[in-house]
Amino acid sequence: MFESEQSKQGEGLSKEILYKIEISANRYDLLCIEGLGLALKVFLKKCEMPTFKAINILPDNERLLTVEKSVDSVRTFGIGAILRGITFTDDSLRAFMDLQEKLHNNICRGRKLVSMGTHDLDTIKGPFYYRALKPKDFKFVPLNRTEEVDGEGMMKILKDDPKLGKYLYLLDNAEVYPLMMDSQGIVMSVPPIINSQHTKMTINTKNVFLDVTGLDYTKCVIVLNTLIAMFSCYSQQPFTCEQIKVIDQIRGTEKEYPDLEPRHFKCDINYLKTLSGLPDVKPEEICNYLKKMELDSKILNDKEIDVLTPITRSDILHPCDIAEDLAIAYGFNNVEKKKVSTLCFGKQQPYNKLSDLFRNEMAQYGYVEFLTMALVSHKDMFTNLLKEKEDEDTVQILYSKTKEFEYFRSSLIPGILKSIEANKVNQLPYKIFELSDVVLIDKENEVGASNRRKLCFAYSNTVSGFEIVQGTVDKLMSKIDLSFNNENVKRSYSIKPSNDPRFFEDRQAEIYIFEGKKIGIFGVVHPKILKNFSIKNPVTLCEIDIQMIFDLILSDELLEGFY
Predict the structure, then answer these.
(1) Pairing of the two strands 483-484 and 492-497
(2) Structural domain boundaries, residue 309
(3) Which of 98-107, 132-141, 372-381, 382-391 comes out lowest in average pLDDT?
């Protein structure tokens, strides 16, 4: 989006016209003037989209980067590349640094996922090593400093730095720090914090070594490709770079970076025309429009075209993205406006309507609604609830970053009990409820899991209040036309004794509807569980499977017209 602003006329004020350009978050190639200028020239057909090439000059052993196993615990991925014969000016060098900072704040998520370092290649010598050492086991001079320090000293001098101090938490409590080093043992950088003064870039730098490290491989590749694509225009041979061969000891792979080959997308022509709203555009015109968006393409047959996406277009993930670019190149304002051929009227989904019915009733009974975290710890989900082993249908988080969020909840009970514990300073009695989704393993679902909606409510006072919870259950069932233990009526519910270790023996019951379909349980919570959650007063709670009630109601012809 472009917006021109004529400065106000007045004494001492500039008459220069300024332009504000708003860039979408996924177009990393437009974050610097070099990329923006190239995109505009290609769009206006002032030039063709350049072809990026790799020209390797250094001997193979001097352009090696070894990712050692020691970094796996702190920052596992490391890749790199070389810009050779580059000519910087004050403006272009500043733009180079600004692009890095914008990428750090954008795709790199404040250097948490990815960070990058740029070095004067003529001050170092390959092969290069990405390894991790203890803070006391290395020394270097940080960028724009004069004193040599070790890792602990680096953290101390940068603690009050307004720009770099905010990133120190990324290495807090780390036993080892990741380092980029050359064959002479020179520390080039300590990712993701700071580069070395030894490899500092200046306007006189001719050859640049780029290192990119992080926790997300895909984002590492995007960042490296973006830097190469944007500033290889200043190389002695424009739009060329030198590749680095990365030997990854963690994953046992060898690969050269950057990979400059464009990606291919086979796109259905009718799909592109339908999605973009251009039913009459010809295949040849589609190719011409896409070329304006830096997407080279050719016709394969009367139904398909082959679209090549360069390294600058990391935002292209699916043919739908190409259809969007087709519409942009054609011009959204030029797309013919048509009235929709069908009309429909929105209404609330029956599933949500049933949920709101229960939610409103609980509020009218004096219960306060809570919303708790969908992720829980192993301790709260199993140990604190006196479960000796994990439930088979519980979904576990792979490589959880914290012990507080190890599992998706399969029950709302832990959240309700933690809510009571957190509010124990408030006046008794507590009447709270939550109506939310839980996640269970579902092998029939394409993602292997599915959501189920449940209702959990609890009463806590100086006495158990079992009769209050049972009365609430009875009222809820009556609201969906279920009578208690009436054998002459098909639509009825019943309660039967249960033996759940989470509740007091003989002070618990299971809820059944429609001839033996179990939908829930209620009872007085066992004192050991209350102790685990630091709750002093008795608690009686109930958990009901709203999903099952919904499924049974829809399958019951007697409820036709209930909604």
Answers:
(1) parallel
(2) 263-333
(3) 382-391
